[in-house]
């Protein structure tokens, strides 16, 4: 159950962040936030 939720999060989260950012700077911040989220998960 946890593994499937994690897999869905890994697939969906980048799609949401890529659609939300408009600039390269925004993409960098989103990518950094995603990395932090992944680190916090483990």
Write out key terms for the chains shown:
mainly alpha, 88% helix, 42 residues, single chain
Q: Can you give me a brief rundown of this structure?
A:
This protein has 42 residues and is mainly α.
How would you portray this structure in words?
By secondary structure, the protein is mainly α. Helix content is 88%, strand content 0%. It contains 2 helices and no strands. It is flat.
Report the total helices. Answer: 2
Strand elements, count: 0
> Looking at the structure, what is the overall shape?
flat
User: Strand percentage, roughly?
Assistant: under 5%
Largest sheet: none
List the helices and strands and how they pair.
Blueprint (H helix, E strand, L loop, with lengths): L1 H19 L3 H18 L1
Helix pairs in contact: 1-2
